[in-house]
Amino acid sequence: MSKKNQYIFIYATFPSKKTVLSVTEKLIEKKLVVCANIREHDAIYSWNKRVYEEKEYGVFFKTREDKWKKTKALILKKHPYETPVILKLRIRDYNPGFKKWMDDSLDDKQLKFKK
Amino acid sequence: MSKKNQYIFIYATFPSKKTVLSVTEKLIEKKLVVCANIREHDAIYSWNKRVYEEKEYGVFFKTREDKWKKTKALILKKHPYETPVILKLRIRDYNPGFKKWMDDSLDDKQLKFKK
Amino acid sequence: MSKKNQYIFIYATFPSKKTVLSVTEKLIEKKLVVCANIREHDAIYSWNKRVYEEKEYGVFFKTREDKWKKTKALILKKHPYETPVILKLRIRDYNPGFKKWMDDSLDDKQLKFKK
């Protein structure tokens, strides 16, 4: 299957709602992702030999495989963490309407967002 | 691996808790899925050249690969959105009790739900 | 790809925040996982011919493929449910910092957690 027929989740975590919104809007404007599902969670993690617990935001971005590299690069550039978490999961199948929505949104060369 | 030994998440989004409950109960009654994990999230998405933000519900259904097509069809039929999102993710491994729970629930021909 | 270069999500559900915290701390101390993202959800499921709905906690643990078996075994041992749900999802790609964080945390033989 070519990259044009593969769709992915990109899972990333952020320290605040403000950062999530700013990164997500940039990604949608640049037609790198089509949709983000965002929810708060508790993160418990090991870092420099200590265990931390804090609130953060986990986001599932939906996009197509050929947008992975540029999406990862833009999140890395905008992200306030020293070590962000940007992970790709493969979507194995989907309804036809989902594919059309992704392709229409990602490939429209005339697309200019109205504010 | 045959479809009978593969288990999947089906991820779908819904506009209200009421819709989630009604679709989930139907899917469980028809032995198409065994379990649903449901939480509210914020969705930001591109649609017809505008960016929208709204509350919705994201659901991870757990089932077996051979139930994918019928589950997708039933969600599509019951779903209020013009373009629903119904995505399949493959579960790569699991504990033995999970497999037994899935198979017992999906294959029991005598199963009649008590109200 | 060897198991040393594959990273995974382990998704598991728990009845209470207390159980999640106790299991997660044990897994991090034993260097079986590096991070857990935890949120409450509603679970609807079929069990012994009845449909149940209850609050529970869903956790995405992040770790490396070679830690899967021991992590699964430890969760099974500590888990209060008769049939826990412990599922492996494959992470298909990631940012380089994520890999370094995982490997540094999982492989440090001198690691002793400060309380």
Automatic annotation (TrEMBL), chains A, B, C:
| Gene3D superfamilies per the UniProt record, alphabetical | 3.30.70.120
Which family is this protein grouped under?
A: Belongs to the CutA family.
Question: What organism is listed for this UniProt entry?
Answer: Methanimicrococcus stummii
Q: What GO MF annotations does this protein's record show?
A: copper ion binding
Per the record, the domain of life is Archaea
> Record's SUPFAM superfamilies?
GlnB-like
Q: Which range is the signal sequence, renumbered to this chain?
A: none
Read off the InterPro entries from this record. Answer: Ion_tolerance_CutA, N-reg_PII-like_a/b, N-reg_PII/ATP_PRibTrfase_C
Q: What's this protein's name? A: Divalent-cation tolerance protein CutA
| Entries under Pfam families matching the protein | CutA1
Q: Which GO terms describe its biological process?
A: response to metal ion
